[in-house]
Amino acid sequence: MPQIDVPLVQGRFGATSRPATWWIQPLAVFLGLGAFIVYSTWAAYQGAFYRFGPYLSPMYSPELFGSAQAWFGPKPAWFPAFLPFSAAFLILWAPGGFRVTCYYYRGAYYKAFWADPPNCAVGEPRKTYWGERTFPLIIQNIHRYFMYLAVIFIGLLSKDAWDGFMNWPDGFHVNIGSLVLLVNVVLLACYTFGCHSLRHLIGGIKDVMSGSPVRKKAYDCVSCLNARHMRFAWFSLFWVGFTDFYVRMCAMSIWHDWRLF
Amino acid sequence: MATATFQIWRGTRESGEFKDYTTPISDGMVVLDAVHQIQAEQANDLAVRWNCKAGKCGSCSAEINGMPKLMCMTRLNQIPLDKPVRIEPMKTFPLIRDLVTDVSWNFEVKKTIRKFKPRKPDAPDGSWRMSQADVDRPQEFRKCIECFLCQDVCHVLRDHHMHGEFIGPRFMIYTAQLEMNPIDADDRLPDLRKSQGIGLCNITKCCTKVCPESIHITDNGIIPLKERVVDRFFDPLGRLFRKFGG
Ligand code: SF4
Ligand code: SF4
Ligand code: FES
Ligand code: FES
Fold it and tell me: Closest ligand 3 atom to the C-alpha of A99?
């Protein structure tokens, strides 16, 4: 590959001719993601108040072990005593890993948390750079495996949303909480089905799609969501946190879950 | 008559400084008009490159208030004029003089990319058949005017000067255009991974943000290529599946 033999100017950290407000956008991302990380870690540690009526908090779904309604019953005896136990820890790594390795979030947190770059056309703090070419960040290529899991989670959370309407002791209800769970799975589905890895798998991998109309249609649908991937990444992130908070507030009898009909 | 002040970089590779020029402005003016007016009336030796004044030749690339932009497509009513407007040359390429940089590295890079290699013709008369739906994707990349603003803003080149290891966003989409072409039969994935450094892009999307042709460089070009590289080199399960599943 051709090199440039003229030494180029090395910008200092933060050096830019952009207006002085360039840091607002990365700061907003930093605060948004930071707040979610803090809340979700706290919520996962609680290990309580994650069920209310037929609702299950998305941060605890599927509940493998934990409460009496868990798939495999209460906390297993073999679980190491020195580790803190919460049903959330057993599953949160999957959606967490999906988000951490998501192409959109990667670009966003490299900027906001690692200043690489701090923002477009703004000088960087470090000279060395490895990118995603070598260890550790080459591991980001695992994203498609998390995507397979995330698609399964959409199925599980759809079941939770269904239960939020259908699983009341006296049959079908529409409560505020039922709608909260429904919006949650819709936003998560819009985020997950707009994934770049899914877009590749479903059609992007081929140069010729015109011969397979179903594949082409699916590719176009995923592309349509993909174009709004950033938006759904944020909406769904916020709503997952809010859904957990809603269930938690109801379970703690702080909020009342109004019935609509 | 309304006036505005432009702070223009004057100098060579060795030395230089910003100089202020105040000039009358009128409705509909673009930054390049103002620069030309300054060149005509106040600084005859000001070096500036341009050709079409229509956003199609890609010559008038510069940095306006810190952001890489085409001077001919930046209207004065889009930028605040209460403060001096700063105009400087692109930072990622060697400066020749004033606003003009030497972008020839890009042409050298282009030569290293494997050429279009069509598969065997589909018809006895030596022609091919393809459908518009399949060429839509590569056609987006053909809108590129080679202004190299994306190369200028990309931090891998701009801050880390990895010109010897990374071809930059412009040539990522050039490669994508060839790779996604339905009748191309060559394989550029090993080059992308190794000599062209696709792993160096950390998808921070600054290239997409500055592209005057609104090409979705990252989402439609680089990420799909990254996914193809993953298929080939980093997805053992997928390979196994394809081997046995067909
Ligand atoms: S997305 Fe990749 S190619 Fe584009 S500017 Fe960022 S690092 Fe460079
Ligand atoms: S991709 Fe866009 S920004 Fe880059 S050279 Fe082409 S037109 Fe310019
Ligand atoms: S790219 Fe964002 S979820 Fe896959
Ligand atoms: S002069 Fe041709 S793009 Fe600006």
Answer: 3
